[in-house]
Known about the structure:
Blueprint: E1 2-8, E2 12-19, E3 29-32, H1 39-51, E4 58-63, E5 67-68, E6 71-72, H2 87-95, E7 99-103, H3 104-112, E8 118-124, E9 128-134, E10 137-139, E11 148-150, E12 153-154, H4 155-159, H5 161-187, E13 191-195, E14 210-212, H6 217-220
Parallel strand pairs: 1-4, 4-7, 8-13, 13-14
Antiparallel strand pairs: 1-2, 2-3, 5-6, 8-9, 9-10, 11-12
Helix pairs in contact: 1-2
Amino acid sequence: xxxxxxxxxxxxxxxxxxxxxxxxxxxxxxxxxxxxxxxxxxxxxxxxxxxxxxxxxxxxxxxxxxxxxxxxxxxxxxxxxxxxxxxxxxxxxxxxxxxxxxxxxxxxxxxxxxxxxxxxxxxxxxxxxxxxxxxxxxxxxxxxxxxxxxxxxxxxxxxxxxxxxxxxxxxxxxxxxxxxxxxxxxxxxxxxxxxxxxxxxxxxxxxxxxxxxxxxxxxxxxxxxxxx
Length: 228
Ligand code: BGC
């Protein structure tokens, strides 16, 4: 099985070929997310990236919003025309291969969870991704990002890339520490996995239950979408 893994992000669109077990088979390629990030322009970027990759027979996509039955339902950091867009169908037509799509944090989580107990995944990128797993099974559609966090601001408003840029690393790290504690009160997680491009900006002494994982998991997890 050769899968074209795609990670659609607020700042970059990334692709890589992986096998059915999530092993990397090609170098990662990336282009900046087109602006405005409409479905058509993003699909064109994926097409261009795919044309430069070796052969693949199916496609797995991580999308930065809620995805239900192949249709994108929310898109906080992309163009609003993604709301209600049949991503699996349209991308499959554009690439001539079957496509499966899921939320980007879910895909990241599928690559990293250990499969025991309550595992929460947070991804730190343009937006704040979240995924919850119970004994390795995904609890669908968990969205921490737009939930109130502090001083009438949401988790994403305090921990997303814009907040990092605006308030600086120190304050952002402090907010992150508070979020770990707050989310522990809520989920009593056994493990909290931190991924996303800004994972490397975390400069905290991490509590024992919290682990940072490389962002490439956002592509490697695509293999799990093709496990029957
Ligand atoms: C979206 C999530 C997504 C996250 C990371 C948030 O704004 O609501 O669905 O996982 O950004 O891309």
